[in-house]
Amino acid sequence: MDQNQSSERHEIAVVGAGPAGLTAALLLKAQGFDVVLIGPRHAADPRTTALLTGSVNVLDAAGAWDAARPNAAPMRTMRIIDATNRLVRAPEVAFEAGEIGLEAFGFNIANEALNAALADSAAAAGLAWIEAPVTDVVHAGETITLTAGDRTLAARLAVAADGARSFLREAAGIAVRTWDYPQHAFVTTFGHSGSHHDTSTEFHTPSGPFTVVPLESRRSSLVWVERAEEVARIETLSDRELSREIEQRSHRILGAVTVERPRGSIPLGGMVARKLADKRTVLVAEAGHRFPPIGAQGLNLGFRDIAGLVEMLIAARRNAADLGGAGTLAAYEKSRKTDIESRTLAVDLLNRSLLSGFLPASAARGLGLYAATRFGPLRRFMMREGLTPSIGAPRLSRGLPLG
Predict the structure, then answer these.
(1) How far apart are CA 312 and CA 308, in angstroms?
(2) Distance in angstroms (rounded) separating the CA atoms of residues 379 and 247
(3) What's residue 291's pLDDT?
(4) Residue 324: which residues within 8 A CB-CB, separation 6 or more?
(5) Backbone phi, psi, residue 375, to 5°
(6) Paired strand residues for 50
């Protein structure tokens, strides 16, 4: 349908109703933009998300953190244990949030609880929401026209928050670079007899990280990165057998383990879009980049995309510029390039260093962790950079007000 036939118009259409899309739409509405959210509600999701402080700041500005906080568990300590059993092993390292003046590095929350909190916040804010997938896109002149269900609407800008297989990205003709790893991530939650002491523990193993992250009470979530054939074996285990294996792999630091359902696994790979913006479309979160669930970087990087985008749009509005024009799109692309490239590279190098038995790679990883145990300034720098990069981080992620 030609865009002139559409009577429904908005400044911004956000496509994708997962955590990234909901947060983007809520934050844009909170800043006074005329925004509509498009996309069906997400299905049940067994995973959890570790929200670092920058993401908590974004959720708070979007008006959703108060609804999410009761179901989120703090992460006050982040511990790394080298369980590779290789010739060169790194020392155990425990980072404490209090060392950099924080109550916690962030909070771990079940994805279903996060999605529910965001949906409740959307209803409370009166956010316009079309609960149907986008099936057609027309780029023409000063608008982009979207068809979803029986609705067709025009917008000045479309925000693609519709995941790694983004329909909007493909419609804009934006190419991607992809790669695969010989691993899957097995995810589940479990109860345990001992206390987690608000500590997230990442065991580095020859097949990838084995990470337990605190949930409320005596419960934790698990992200277990393993070779694909080993994950296939793990998925055949009974609950009792799986509980015993998790207990052993975690070195019994949490006591007796009782696994919960559901459980699931995902193949690991990476993707980076060749461009982050084109044809009145900007990419955020997994529409623009995806990498393994290592170091709690994925959605947190996506939330920085959202914060950076809102900054660019506020500046464009202040200067009476076109929200979907070439200048605004170029500013967004430039603002996010360094952060995305550096985080993608860091996660890729860490994962490959674990998979590789190459001695220099193991030595470099061990040396870095050794230095973190010995030199306070470096240790504190690593903690702050792990949470929010000093270069390329939007003001909102750093806890600063939007200009």
Answers:
(1) 6
(2) 30
(3) 86
(4) 142, 143, 144, 155, 156, 157, 158, 280
(5) -120, 110
(6) 108
Contacts of 135 (CB under 8 A, 6+ apart): 147, 148
Is the CB of residue 109 less than 8 Å from the CB of residue 231? no
- Burial string for 346-385 (b: 16+ CB within 10 Å, else e) reads bbbebbebbbeeeeebbbebbeebeebeeeeeebeebbee
Q: Does residue 236 belong to any structural domain of this protein? A: no
Question: Which domain does 388 fall in, by range?
Answer: 3-178+268-398
Whether residue 315 lies inside any domain: the answer is: yes
pLDDT along the chain (403 residues), means of 10: 63 97 98 97 84 94 96 94 66 86 94 95 97 95 94 97 96 96 94 96 89 94 94 96 96 95 90 96 97 80 96 96 96 94 84 60 54 67 75 82 73
Neighbouring residues of 70: CB distance < 8 A, sequence distance ≥ 6: none
Query: Residues of 217-234 as b/e, b for ≥16 C-beta within 10 angstroms?
Result: ebbbbbbbbbbeebbeeb
Q: How far apart are CA 232 and CA 305, in angstroms?
A: 34
Residue 7 makes CB contacts below 8 A (sequence gap 6+) with none
Asked whether residue 13 is assigned to any structural domain, the reply reads yes
Compute the C-alpha angle 140/141/143, nearest 5°.
75
Per-residue CA distances from 214 to 198, 220, 221, 277 (Å): 6, 4, 6, 37
Residue keyed to tokens 């060169």: 88
Report the predicted TM-score, pTM, of the whole model to 2 decimal places.
0.90
Total structural domains within the chain: 1
Counting other chains too, the contacts that 225-233 makes at CB distance below 8 Å and 24 or more residues apart are: 225/183, 225/184, 225/185, 225/186, 225/268, 225/292, 225/293, 225/294, 225/351, 226/183, 226/184, 226/186, 227/182, 227/183, 227/184, 228/182, 228/183, 228/184, 228/267, 231/183, 231/184, 231/185, 231/186, 231/265
Q: Is residue 134 part of a domain?
A: yes
Q: In Å, what is the CA distance from 72 to each residue of 179, 216, 260? A: 33, 7, 18
> What CATH number is attached to the domain comprising 44?
3.50.50.60
Separation in Å, CA 194 to CA 92, 198, 217, 278, 344: 20, 12, 10, 51, 35
